[in-house]
């Protein structure tokens, strides 16, 4: 046992004495949260609206006013000819154009075939869909106020009425950070011993290899805990994403993912023997799928079926799903039992696999 | 008396590569048993099998009565092991390293302090320093202390003195002799002949085969053609009057540390100049200034007729450079390496083709033209690297420890190549840790603490100091050094 703690101690020394690594480890969650929260936001902000209203009447003015009042839309110009629409987009003056049919008010109240067209710049499909949906919502409300509810299409957005992206990426960043710190750092720290030649001496000593592995895991477990706390504090107080469900359940879920990640890191360390390779493998094989396939950035529902199968074997996907349920929707244990079982099975399987693979010899 | 270590008919291969073939030997308790052999002769594989890290493909090994396959846990409790690289944690201090290894073996530093006292006392003044910041010699002493801290019955040392300067090597062997008196059995591998002479018995490994086991005296005679080839004879070359290198009062300071302290010397065209000095004496720093890689803090000089302060780019065009650390691309074929370096120096296509044939013929590598450099023996690589460095017919070639890790015979072949280049009028500026090679030089200088302490022909120096070989001269001077760092 004394050997074990001596090991944990030097592992902490390794981390604390490498200032750059420590800064990256502790600063990364902050930077990611800030980046995703403010810079890489997929939210609508100040979409510029052009209006083409051939016969300006009370109803159309009312709808346009409503749009302008909304903080996500700014009416920037009025167009006079359908031909101008394309030019306005080409010159980058507008993001959305609202086009009313001639004699809108009259048709609305009498003939019932009033037309309203929404033209959206779809170069960025995500933003376009969001802008369209939200503009529709705003205008529908305006029409409703005019007592014309039966004409309007009703759109209702659940949980995230402004489609705030923070609700989606906070669980994503949590999954990403835990995966990165635990898997990559465990792999790197074991491989480093191989590189310095100390692994040979450790193996030719009476210490049991399971102790070596556990001692490597402890410091990163602690660091992950710190990171998890940082992320949650930032998301609650800076991004205003509340933790709706049980903190304890959230911690338990995170612990499961950490176990999976540690085992994965250990597994990687058995395969390679230099730090660069360990970084690359953890980066490419573990990180990219987490970013792209776990549903953190792109919704898994819209993936081709093959990628969907692939995404099923990514632990972070299940973690992110579960965290969304607990943290955002405030659901309890009953709602996430499936994810818990999947993560537990993965953790046990990987730990067994990597313990078997970790040899107390060099071959 | 029963042998402490027995190796019985052991073979080991990695895929197609046969590392060891039918090796058998026994080590008696209390013995210092040496294993000599060039790089790639299977020494490390043997050590890894002895320390239970690898399984033998065939045969059996016992250490202290335990089988390395079945009872490996018992062996791991009673052996000390120093692998080829210094197996220390560079970010832990001297003290922390020692304490960690003591705890690892379930003991404390105090318990066996007496055993390591003589060794550890030399590094104790630096006990708060990080192991990564120590010089090669001090790292080695720390690694030895760490391997001894649990009082092992047998100590396995795999090339413990590689990358360590001659003075530290001597001190290291004195420590091993003291440990022998403590009753510790040792198995040591080394590429150095002077070290193997200190062993009680030795084995000679060559290309995975055990060529023989006996006392060093007998072995050195039996394998004289490989281990002690006859000296090189060279007619005194007629030197030209012009100087290839001329420097005056060259100084290089890093902050308040003076790495090179007012050195002045000149080398004639066509001369073979040996530039010697212990690690940390300032050789590399001086050489970098001569090659145009760094500016001198003070002083003047010319290399190949160009000013080292102002014409560095011109110098680079007129010199060749080869070092042990970087010379060829392993993943390129032989001809691709030649083509690449020739291209870097802007040689003409037809010239390259002609000279490539010449070089391959001279080296006897015609058949290996399309071989990846990776799969060539180290000695061949070194000769190829030399030919590549002189391919563009430079006026001077700088060689930084060009012959590390090969047997004496192969080193001799390398020097034949140097002589041929010198005969063609190329000036050779060479650093080496092998003192027998120093004897091959026209003139040598020995640096101590940043200054050139002596300069002259090997004959002159030996006469001045009344020593019978350059090794003696070198040690006498190197012991004067007060500076200890890499």
From TrEMBL, chain B:
<dbReference type="InterPro" id="IPR027417">
    <property type="entry name" value="P-loop_NTPase"/>
</dbReference>
<keyword id="KW-0547">Nucleotide-binding</keyword>
<dbReference type="GO" id="GO:0016887">
    <property type="term" value="F:ATP hydrolysis activity"/>
</dbReference>
<dbReference type="GO" id="GO:0005524">
    <property type="term" value="F:ATP binding"/>
</dbReference>
<dbReference type="InterPro" id="IPR017871">
    <property type="entry name" value="ABC_transporter-like_CS"/>
</dbReference>
<keyword id="KW-0067">ATP-binding</keyword>
<feature type="domain" description="ABC transporter">
    <location>
        <begin position="5"/>
        <end position="232"/>
    </location>
</feature>
<dbReference type="InterPro" id="IPR003593">
    <property type="entry name" value="AAA+_ATPase"/>
</dbReference>
<protein>
    <submittedName>
        <fullName>ATP-binding cassette domain-containing protein</fullName>
    </submittedName>
</protein>
<dbReference type="Pfam" id="PF00005">
    <property type="entry name" value="ABC_tran"/>
</dbReference>
<feature type="domain" description="ABC transporter">
    <location>
        <begin position="245"/>
        <end position="474"/>
    </location>
</feature>
<dbReference type="InterPro" id="IPR003439">
    <property type="entry name" value="ABC_transporter-like_ATP-bd"/>
</dbReference>
């Amino acid at each position: 046992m004394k050997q074990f703690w001596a090991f944990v101690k030097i592992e902490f020394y390794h981390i604390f004495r490498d200032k750059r690594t420590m800064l990256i480890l502790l600063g990364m969650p902050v930077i990611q949260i800030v980046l995703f929260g403010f810079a890489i936001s997929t939210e609508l902000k100040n979409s510029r609206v052009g209006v083409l209203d051939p016969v300006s009447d009370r109803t159309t003015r009312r709808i346009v006013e409503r749009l302008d009042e909304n903080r996500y839309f700014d009416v920037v110009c009025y167009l006079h000819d359908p031909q101008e629409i394309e030019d306005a987009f080409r010159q980058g003056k507008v993001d959305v154009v609202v086009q009313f049919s001639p004699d809108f008010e009259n048709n609305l109240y009498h003939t019932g075939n009033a037309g309203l067209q929404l033209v959206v710049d779809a170069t960025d499909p995500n933003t376009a869909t969001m802008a369209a949906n939200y503009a529709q919502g705003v205008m529908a409300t305006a029409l409703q106020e005019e007592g014309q509810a039966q004409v309007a299409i009703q759109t209702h957005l659940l949980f995230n009425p402004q489609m705030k992206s923070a609700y989606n990426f906070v669980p994503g960043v949590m999954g990403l950070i835990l995966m990165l710190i635990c898997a990559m750092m465990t792999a790197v720290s074991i491989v480093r011993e191989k590189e310095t030649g100390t692994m040979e001496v450790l193996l030719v000593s009476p210490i049991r290899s399971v102790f070596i592995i556990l001692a490597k895991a402890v410091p990163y477990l602690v660091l992950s805990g710190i990171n998890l706390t940082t992320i949650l504090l930032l998301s609650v107080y800076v991004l205003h994403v509340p933790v709706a469900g049980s903190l304890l359940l959230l911690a338990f879920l995170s612990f499961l993912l950490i176990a999976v990640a540690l085992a994965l890191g250990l597994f990687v360390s058995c395969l390679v023997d230099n730090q660069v390779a360990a970084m690359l493998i953890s980066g490419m094989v573990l990180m990219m799928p987490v970013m792209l396939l776990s549903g953190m950035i792109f919704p898994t529902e819209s993936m081709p079926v093959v990628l969907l199968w692939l995404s099923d074997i990514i632990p972070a996907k299940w973690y992110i799903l579960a965290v969304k349920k607990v943290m955002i929707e405030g659901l309890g244990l009953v709602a996430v039992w499936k994810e818990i079982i999947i993560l537990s099975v993965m953790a046990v399987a990987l730990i067994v696999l990597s313990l078997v693979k970790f040899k107390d010899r060099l071959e | 008396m029963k042998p402490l270590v027995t190796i019985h008919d052991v073979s080991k291969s990695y895929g197609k590569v046969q590392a060891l073939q039918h090796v058998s030997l026994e080590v008696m308790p209390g013995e210092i048993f040496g294993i000599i052999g060039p790089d790639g002769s299977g020494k490390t594989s043997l050590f890894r099998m002895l320390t239970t890290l690898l399984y033998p493909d065939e045969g059996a090994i016992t250490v202290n009565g335990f089988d390395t396959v079945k009872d490996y846990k018992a062996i791991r409790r009673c052996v000390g092991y120093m692998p080829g690289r210094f197996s220390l944690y560079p970010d832990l201090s001297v003290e922390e390293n020692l304490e960690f290894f003591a705890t690892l073996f379930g003991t404390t530093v105090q318990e066996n302090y007496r055993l390591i006292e003589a060794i550890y006392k030399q590094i104790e003044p630096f006990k708060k320093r990080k192991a990564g910041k120590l010089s090669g010699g001090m790292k080695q002493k720390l690694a030895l202390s760490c391997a001894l801290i649990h009082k092992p019955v047998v100590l396995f040392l795999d090339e413990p003195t590689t990358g360590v300067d001659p003075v530290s090597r001597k001190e290291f062997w004195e420590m091993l002799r003291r440990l022998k008196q403590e009753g510790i059995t040792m198995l040591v591998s080394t590429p150095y002949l002077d070290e193997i002479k200190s062993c009680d018995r030795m084995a000679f490994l060559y290309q995975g085969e055990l060529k023989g086991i006996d006392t060093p005296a007998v072995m050195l005679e039996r394998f004289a053609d490989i281990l002690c080839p006859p000296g090189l004879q060279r007619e005194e070359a007629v030197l030209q009057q012009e100087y290839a290198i001329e420097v005056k009062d060259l100084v290089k300071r890093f902050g308040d540390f003076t790495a090179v302290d007012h050195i002045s010397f000149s080398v004639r065209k066509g001369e073979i100049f040996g530039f010697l000095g212990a690690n940390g004496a300032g050789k590399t720093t001086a050489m970098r200034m001569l090659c145009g890689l760094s500016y001198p803090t003070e002083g003047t000089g010319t290399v190949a007729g160009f000013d080292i302060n102002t014409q560095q780019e011109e110098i680079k065009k007129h010199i060749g450079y080869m070092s042990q650390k970087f010379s060829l691309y392993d993943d390129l074929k032989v001809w691709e390496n030649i083509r690449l370096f020739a291209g870097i120096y802007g040689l003409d296509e037809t010239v390259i083709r002609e000279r490539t044939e010449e070089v391959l013929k001279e080296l006897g590598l015609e058949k290996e033209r399309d071989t990846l450099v990776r799969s060539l023996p180290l000695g061949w690589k070194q000769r190829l690297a030399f030919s590549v460095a002189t391919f563009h017919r430079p006026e001077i070639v700088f060689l930084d420890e060009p012959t590390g890790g090969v047997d004496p015979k192969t080193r001799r072949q390398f020097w034949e190549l140097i002589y041929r280049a010198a005969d063609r009028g190329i000036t050779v500026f060479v650093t080496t840790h092998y003192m027998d090679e120093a004897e091959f030089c026209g003139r040598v200088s020995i640096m101590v603490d940043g200054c050139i302490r002596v300069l002259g022909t090997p004959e002159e120096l030996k006469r001045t100091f009344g020593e019978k070989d350059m090794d003696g001269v070198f040690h006498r001077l190197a012991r004067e050094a007060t500076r200890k760092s890499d």
